[in-house]
Amino acid sequence: MEQMLSAFQSDLSCISLEIQTLQEQSITMNIKLKNRQSVRSELSQLVDELVVPNSMISIILETPVTEQDFVEQLHELNNKINYVKEQSFKETQACVDVQDVLDRLKIKAVTKIREFILQKIYSFRKPMTNYQIPQNALLKYRFFFQFLLANERQVAKEIRDEYVDTMSKIYFSYFKSYTSRLMKVQYEEVAEKDDLMGVEDTAKKGFFSKPSLKNRNTIFTLGNRGNVITSAELEAPILVPHAAQKSDVRYPFESLFRSQHHALLDNSCREYLFICDFFMVTGNSAQDLFNAIMGKTLTMFLKHMDTYVSDCYDSIAIFLCIHIILRFKAIMAKRNIPAVDKYWDTLLEILWPRFEHILELNIQSIRTTDPQKLGCLDTRPHYITRRYAEFSSAIVSINETFPNEKTNALLGQLQVEVENFVLRVAAEFSSRKEQLIFLINNYDMMLGVLMERAADDSKEVESFQQLLTARTQEFIEEILSPPFGGMIAFVKESEALVEKGQLDRLKTDEGGSNTVGTAGRIGRVYGL
């Protein structure tokens, strides 16, 4: 029995050793399997990437670049080129065998892509071409430039330089011609250096003065000119000069400015988005590329504006142009396109000083106006105050949308000079009654004009309301003074005493000869 158990124990030990050996063999086989699978996966990818199928060679060599098959195979070729570059760092021997084939295919693809893109760019130059169509066509093949940039940077630079040169000339030619044609439909008669607020009408009417034209632009009145900064007109289609000439339609300068710069805004937005998308640039690189394309055109615009503004005396036109720019800046900011931000700022640096200069000329003209040289005076509203009222209401109504403290300060100076002017003219009347009538008529007219356009709580409206009230009160007293002088004096003294809380003084001796005695008698009558 003992011998049998020993034999059984020996058999169990052998079985345990065999199981252990089988486990070790299983683990070893599993590791070998995983290694083979891993090698197979890598070898499979290597083989797939390094093998250049005949179909790829045929399509790259023979198929037009606009075909979808060519675009797909170009992506595959790009992947293979990148893969071989990665493997070359690992010194994979198989890469050497396929490198020559890939290089030949790359050269052929680059040649075909270069020719296609250059032909598209050259098509921009054809007369009457809508360049947006070939631009949109290029965007469909934006991967072509990406392929060139990754594999042949010199060709990519050539294409980019050619595009910049072509579009720069196209934009410059178009905007130079458009600006020139626009200026031909401006009002023939514009404000001149003598068209100032304080200049007498007779001074501007000489023997050789021009007759009033049908399309003469307004100088001090806003009229419908303010519509140019409303949403409806601000982004309206641009003006067509030859159509305007054909129908003999004329426009104020701000309308021409709006049309010119709306065209610039649209083209700039479209161009900036295109170069960011097609040439794959952002930030400063995108701005530099945009400047290379549009820089010549923007410089031409600035020179044109500088020349025009230096001899312009139409302050309303310049102020409207300033507000057009502020709105166009807001539109581009909303679109998140900073392409022409610097241009807008430079333009404002040209317009603001000129606007301030013209306002200062008007202020000076009113300050130096001699009432004795204005001819026969009457008590009706003066034409100079009407000019001021129209002009001030125009500037205030425009300025309310984008308030500017510098403008408010200049308007404040202008208002002070006008108030002084009105007082100087009033002093020319011999009687106080006529002086007051003149003041009331002028204050009332200015207040009425201002209230049509400016807000009721504006400083100008409030100031003239106070002046009108004071002069009206004084006129009433002037009229009532002869028959009711004593009564008026009594009312004033009584009001003063009531305000001081001295009601007892109203009950003084009724026999007194002064007005306070009279006040006592009337006070008792009324129960005071």
From TrEMBL:
Residues 165-476 form the Vps52 C-terminal domain. GO terms for biological process: endocytic recycling; Golgi to vacuole transport; lysosomal transport; protein transport; retrograde transport, endosome to Golgi. The keyword Protein transport applies. Residues 1-148 form the Vps52 coiled-coil domain. One of its GO terms (molecular function) is syntaxin binding. One of its GO terms (cellular component) is cytosol. It comes from the Eukaryota. It is found in: Golgi apparatus, trans-Golgi network. Belongs to the VPS52 family. This is Vacuolar protein sorting-associated protein 52 homolog.
